Amino acid sequence: MAKKVENSNGAAYAAPAVDMALDLVEFLAENPGAFGINDLSRRLGLAVNSVYRVLRRLAARGYVELDPASNGYRLSTRFLSLGLKLHNRIDLRTRARQHLERLAAESGETCQIQTLQQNRMLVVDSVAPGTDFYLRVTPGSLLCVHANAFGKAMLAFLPDERVQAILAAGMPALTEHTHTSPDALLRDLAATRCSGLSYDREEYSMGIYCVGAPVFDVQGDILAGMGVTGLASRRTATTDKRLCSQVLDCAAAVSADMGYTGSQFGDWKSLLK
Questions:
Q1: Residues in CB range of 145: below 8 A, 6 or more apart
Q2: CATH code, 148
Q3: Do 170 and 131 share a domain, yes or no?
Q4: I need a surface site. Which of 2, 53, 76, 241 has the fewest CB within 10 A?
Q5: pLDDT value, residue 130
């Protein structure tokens, strides 16, 4: 019989159905093959009816599947898909770090990389420049997508239906410059697809300016948005052009480290000349 683990948070926080689902998932992960409901009930010491209900829900959500040969249940590839997404996020941070450090040194600005988590942008990593004064961005923060240069860099290359779903979740006005109209934001995204660059022109916070660019994976799919964050008061035509070039170079380097072999960044860089 599988060893039962006590809830370390105490009975007040117990969720028996969740514990049962996790017991079943962990058992199936550790034991190859397919198992019938009665077999799982006996091995885990759980009621047959309860095992049946939990497995039916897991199957409906695509986490387990019925083996037609044995009529038993086994884990589906959905867990592998989730694991690969987590691996990509961890691998992304590791591979992007050296490029973000170089960008921070070159630009003198805070550099960060973000990826989409449901309808928010997750700050995967942030690197501060070696200056006395800089803007601090905390890794792990969840930020709005629509007023975020790095969010726009991702939205520009997502399927239309995914973009519409994110925008439908809400576009609150964070400053007087925030786009709250989907049409206005979609025009920004179209410009990003042409230039490879996205901007936050005091749309998230007054006085803050960001330049972003997309990061692609080995299949050419959008993986993240990255770039620089600085004070709008330091912007000039010269610094804008320099930052845009540096951000595109960094995004190209991170994408290449993630396996991207396309020519898109070269095309975008040619537009800056």
A1: 116, 119, 120, 121, 151, 152, 154, 155, 166
A2: 3.30.450.40
A3: yes
A4: 241
A5: 81
